[in-house]
Structures are given as C-alpha cells and as structure tokens.
C-alpha cells in the first residue's frame, strides 16, 4: 500500500490571501484546536514509551531527540529546557538537529537527506544501548532520522519516533512509534503549524512525565530547578517559605547556602 502523507494534503481553506486578518486568525485557531484531540488518542503509545525511558534513565541512560528542520528544533528546545527546569545535568537529555547547531537559526540545505549523518552525530555523543533515541519527523520520511534509527536498532539502542503521518517509513523502523495524525495544515504542507504543535505537546508530556517519575518534582513543585535568574530565585524562595512556614529573608538565605529548593527544605533545622 502506498504511503500517503496527510501532512502534505491540500488545505481545507482556499484563497487565503483574500481572507481578512480576523478570518485568518480564527481559521488558524480552529485548526489548532484539533491538535490536543489527536494527541489524546495516542496517549497509550506515549505511556508505553515513558515506561521504557524511566528505568533506563534511572540507571544512567540518556534521552536523545534527533530530527531536522522544525522537528529538530523542537527536540533541541525540549532538551535544553530540562536542566533549568528539573536540575538534571546538561548531556542527560540531548537534542540533535541535522546540519548541527547552526541549523537551529538558519536552515542548512539538504542536511536532512543523508542516511548516515544522523548515526554519525549520535556516535559523536557516544551513544550506547543504555540510551533511548526518539526520532522526530512530521512527515515520517526524513532520511537523516530514519537512517539514525536503523543503525540504533542494529546496535540494540531503544528507538521511538514522533511523526504526524500514519504508517510512515519512520514508524516502521521505530520500536515505539508515536503517530499524531493532525491532517492537512492551514497553509498546505506547512508542518511547523499543527504538526509542530502536536510534536511539542508530545515532547512536553514525555520529558515532564519522565522527570516526575525520576523524582525531580515534589508535590507539584520544581524543587531541583536551577536558580539562574532573579525570577527563579524569587519563585524558589516562595516555595521554601510555603513548605517551611518561614519568612522571605530566611528562605533566601537557605537558598543561597544550599543552592536548591530541595536542599534548602531538606537541610533546614528549626
């Protein structure tokens, strides 16, 4: 059966240039509203993947995201937010984009078309069978990502994917395929829109659920967050105040001494 990309199907909307700004915004929003429903349908698939990631990371494994273009950028964003949010070391969750870090800001022509480069980029990070690699590609047909997962499978590395087409070549090589089928984009083929939104929602779910299960959240608080700016110091101090029933000056002093909300609370002596 021929693989058909619903992400490339023609938009349901015609003559976009003739719409008023209000019509454009309302119709984009109308399409965006369908994305959470598409994600909800595949929560069991996401759950299965999280159940595999948690025990691997608990014993020192890492989580890799690998993609090209918008998909690669979304992986880099999620990975880069894990250290400040959850206090994990840099290099525990890693985002790799085709064309290297310069491709985050400026597209690198044909970078996604190499079947071998994705695996080479993983080898540069000393990939092992303790790790999990999630390939991200809206189309599900990106050679850079498919080739990386094929080699990972050969090396006994756990593989998963996030794509927005059903039955894609990428899904067929991933051990844990996640397919968020969001249908045609408002602008035909512009997968930075609904497909990108779906991928971001799924990445949020995966990394947040994993970190919670690894003990990086207490109650509903980011007790291990990096206190890297005044806003976060203030937030952390208020967490300490609330937990220990103390005033702001003492909470700030405890944070300064211990470096994190968790340590400040755990080491407090009344």
Question: Which terms summarize this structure?
Answer:
11 helices, five-stranded parallel sheet, Rossmann fold, globular, alpha/beta, 2 domains, 270 residues
Concise summary:
With 270 residues, the protein is α/β, with parallel strands linked by helices. It has helices spanning 21-32, 35-40, 43-58, 69-86, 117-124, 143-154, 169-173, 194-213, 230-244, 248-258, 261-266, and strands at 63-67, 93-97, 132-136, 158-163, 176-179.
Structural overview:
Helix 7 links the parallel strand 4 and strand 5 (176-179). The chain folds into 2 domains: 6-213, Glucose-6-phosphate isomerase like protein, domain 1 (Rossmann fold), CATH 3.40.50; 217-270, no CATH class. Strands 2-1-3-4-5 form a 5-stranded parallel beta sheet, with helices on both faces. The model has no long low-confidence stretch (mean pLDDT 95). It is 48% helix and 9% strand. It has helices at residues 21-32, 35-40, 43-58, 69-86, 117-124, 143-154, 169-173, 194-213, 230-244, 248-258, 261-266; strands at 63-67, 93-97, 132-136, 158-163, 176-179. It is built from 11 helices and 5 strands, in the order H-H-H-E-H-E-H-E-H-E-H-E-H-H-H-H. Helix 4 packs parallel to helix 8 and helix 5 (117-124) crosses helix 6 (143-154). With 270 residues, the chain is of the alpha/beta class.
